[in-house]
Write a structure and sequence with these properties.
Bound molecules: pyridoxal-5'-phosphate
Distance between the termini: 18 Å
Strand order of the largest sheet: 1-9-8-5-4-2-3
Low-confidence stretches: none
Shape: globular
CATH architecture of the largest domain: 3-Layer(aba) Sandwich
CATH superfamily of the largest domain: Type I PLP-dependent aspartate aminotransferase-like (Major domain)
Number of domains: 2
Largest sheet: 7 strands, mixed
CATH topology of the largest domain: Aspartate Aminotransferase, domain 2
């Protein structure tokens, strides 16, 4: 029996691959490897998708979070509210900025930040200066209500769109609700590079300028540090060239991802459910099933040739390396979900036969 992998990044189609090879050859010929034509074109293309907001290409999605936090004033001792089930990227960036995370529980039906839990946290912790809303698994969180909660208290809203590129709410793209938004182009992302890359999307030119300075050593001008906390984080021309090709495919690939997950949602049995929606709010980044019998299901899927994974197996408030760095937190829904989530294969280059094989395996659980 053929095996269906959780993901397979080797399946770039021949036409896309040859366009990319041509673009990379052009970068080499031009001898301009940073902050040049392809980066500018990519930033413009992304900006067109994001209501014209200015976009800055950076080194990766984790740097994007760090830069967004620093640019909006998160420094030593500042508190940032975020979920604990999203892989630790925000918590790590907050700690790196000198800030302190305050964890917010999630809604068990969606795995996204619970607006009720956030309201409670903001009430109990009035010194929270920023909320990071991660649109996890490609599903948009409760962004409009959370925007209002932030506005009521003058708290910055940062959207982490690493997993949700292309999703929207009432026709409005994710990444345009926050004061600032971050993207990752890690190769498995819906918009993926051939290496590390990321971007920051800002609501205002001023914020964009602040992020740009922080992303280039803190230089106000060449060799003059005007802002502390600067790092070196730039997208390179080769990744920008790759992403310009990938971006053309994004919407069709998101549609394919949604269709795959829809097959799974129709096939699952009993109490099991998918953390997914068949709407513009979901772009199928990961197909995550919730099941009471995770290890048994994983074994049976494996026996049917279906690869699975767990995103993410350890919540931030239980990471051993952060034991003394993060506050204790009661997060019953986060704890409940972490033992029940199981990721199924979902990538646009899956064949119809592979999708059928996974759906049949799910139906027989
Ligand atoms: C939700 C989320 N935020 C941030 C990141 C960090 O991005 P990167 O790996 O590009 O640093 C990732 C993934 O890698 C992610 O899934």
């Amino acid at each position: 029996m053929a095996r269906v992998p959780l993901n397979d990044l080797s399946r770039t189609d021949a036409a896309t691959a040859s366009n990319i090879v041509r673009a990379v050859a052009d970068v080499i010929d031009r001898g301009a490897f940073l902050k040049n034509r392809y980066t500018a074109e990519l930033e413009q293309r992304l900006s067109n998708r994001l209501a014209g907001r200015p976009v800055l290409g950076v080194g990766n999605g984790t740097d994007a979070l760090y830069l967004a936090l620093r640019a909006t004033g998160v420094g030593v001792g500042r508190r940032v509210a975020n979920v604990a089930n999203a892989g630790g990227y925000t918590t790590g960036a907050t700690l790196r900025a000198g800030g302190s995370p305050v964890f917010v529980d999630v809604d068990p039906r969606t795995a996204q930040m619970s607006r009720a839990a956030l309201a409670t946290v903001l009430e109990a912790t009035p010194d929270v200066v920023a909320v990071v809303l991660t649109h996890l698994y490609g599903l948009v969180g409760d962004v409009q209500v959370i925007r209002s909660l932030c506005d009521e208290r003058n708290v910055t809203l940062i959207e982490d769109c690493a997993q949700s590129m292309g999703a929207s709410v009432d026709g409005r793209s994710v990444g345009t609700f926050g004061d600032i938004a971050t993207l990752s182009f890690y190769p498995t992302k819906n918009l993926g590079a051939f290496g590390d890359a990321g971007a920051v999307v800002c609501a205002t030119p001023d914020l964009h300028e602040r992020v740009s300075v922080l992303a280039q050593y803190g230089w106000g001008q060449r060799y003059e540090v005007t802002v502390p906390g600067g790092i070196n984080s730039r997208i390179d021309e080769i990744q920008a060239a790759v992403l310009l090709e990938a971006e053309r495919l994004l919407d069709a690939q998101n549609e394919r991802r949604r269709a795959i997950v829809s097959r799974y949602a129709a096939a699952v049995q009993g109490e099991r459910y998918l953390l997914a929606e068949q709407t513009e709010r979901y772009v199928g980044h990961l197909a995550v099933m919730v099941t009471e019998q995770r290890s048994e299901d994983a074994k049976r899927l494996d026996a049917s040739g279906v690869g699975t994974g767990i995103h993410y197996p350890i919540s931030d408030h239980r990471q051993p390396g952060w034991e003394t760095a993060v506050p204790r937190a009661e997060l019953p829904n986060t704890d409940w979900l972490v033992d029940r989530i199981l990721t199924l294969p979902c990538f646009p280059a899956m064949s119809d036969d592979e999708v059928d094989q996974v759906a049949d395996a799910l139906a027989s659980l």
